[in-house]
């Protein structure tokens, strides 16, 4: 299915949801210094062909303007004529859609996600055990233990991409970039938001637990 077959209504639905999420996240201070990016898929998915709306690069994400999003294809190329540049991290979104077939991906930088990704870098994963909010990731087993994967971070963003298939864990709907931020995804915007919020809670928990543990 080509992008031309995607209806105006389908595009508006996606843009409406992204606008609401962006404004909600901005009000919670999730986009310091223009960091972070959001995307949502539109139309059907196959590994060979899919389209998504993504935030334009470098914008003040606390402001709402008609130039906040653009549609790109599975190679990150704009689907419509535009002067906007897709997020510099669009290649990461592309790879996550390709591998998971998810419907939405949200990326934010926070002090807690950056600190824990650095603290646990040698393990290449942040361990979390027995915390109730693991259920927010749709993992329901008793006393669950999870490892949230951490990827290398490079200024040259395409260099990050080859590590994604190696590190992605199909049970965990997110990956950390070392000292950078979290990517969380879900079937739709509702689920991706729930996952992102659960991850952020867990990162703060882990950080604070590490401090308490070392005081014993
Ligand atoms: C200003 S933070 C450095 C870039 C980054 O990590 C980010 O999330 C925002 O980049 P974008 O191109 O999506 O604005
Ligand atoms: Zn980033």
TrEMBL record:
NCBIfam families, per the entry: salvage_mtnB (TIGR03328)
Its EC number(s): 4.2.1.109
InterPro entries: Aldolase_II/adducin_N, Aldolase_II/adducin_N_sf, MethylthioRu-1-P_deHdtase_MtnB
Organism, as annotated: Cohnella luojiensis
GO cellular component, one term: cytoplasm
UniProt entry keywords in alphabetical sequence: Amino-acid biosynthesis, Lyase, Metal-binding, Methionine biosynthesis, Zinc
Catalytic activity: 5-(methylsulfanyl)-D-ribulose 1-phosphate = 5-methylsulfanyl-2,3-dioxopentyl phosphate + H2O
Keyword Membrane (UniProt): no
GO biological process terms, semicolon-separated: L-methionine salvage from methylthioadenosine
Domain Class II aldolase/adducin N-terminal: 16-207
UniProt keyword Metal-binding present: yes
Cofactors: Zn(2+)
Binding locations of Zn(2+): 107, 109
PANTHER family attached to this UniProt entry: METHYLTHIORIBULOSE-1-PHOSPHATE DEHYDRATASE
Pathway: Amino-acid biosynthesis; L-methionine biosynthesis via salvage pathway; L-methionine from S-methyl-5-thio-alpha-D-ribose 1-phosphate: step 2/6
Similarity section: Belongs to the aldolase class II family. MtnB subfamily.
Purpose: Catalyzes the dehydration of methylthioribulose-1-phosphate (MTRu-1-P) into 2,3-diketo-5-methylthiopentyl-1-phosphate (DK-MTP-1-P).
Protein name: Methylthioribulose-1-phosphate dehydratase
């Amino acid at each position: 299915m080509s992008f031309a077959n995607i209806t105006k209504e389908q595009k508006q639905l996606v843009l409406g949801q992204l606008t609401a999420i962006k404004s909600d996240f901005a009000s919670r201070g999730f986009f310091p210094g223009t960091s972070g990016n959001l995307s949502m898929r539109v139309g059907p998915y196959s590994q060979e062909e899919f389209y998504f709306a993504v935030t334009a690069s470098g914008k003040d994400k606390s402001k709402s303007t008609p130039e906040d999003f653009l549609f790109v294809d599975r190679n990150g190329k704009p689907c419509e004529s535009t002067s906007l540049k897709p997020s510099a991290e669009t290649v990461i979104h592309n790879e996550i859609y390709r591998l998971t077939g998810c419907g939405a991906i949200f990326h934010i930088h926070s002090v807690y996600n950056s600190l824990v990704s650095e603290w646990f870098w040698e393990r290449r994963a942040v361990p979390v055990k027995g915390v109730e909010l693991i259920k927010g990731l749709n993992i329901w087993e008793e006393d669950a233990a999870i490892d949230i994967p951490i990827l290398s971070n490079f200024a040259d963003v395409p260099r990050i991409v080859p590590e994604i298939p190696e590190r992605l864990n199909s049970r965990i709907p997110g990956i950390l970039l070392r000292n950078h931020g979290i990517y969380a995804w879900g079937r739709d915007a509702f689920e991706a938001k729930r996952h992102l919020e659960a991850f952020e809670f867990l990162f703060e928990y882990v950080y604070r637990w590490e401090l308490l543990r070392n005081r014993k």
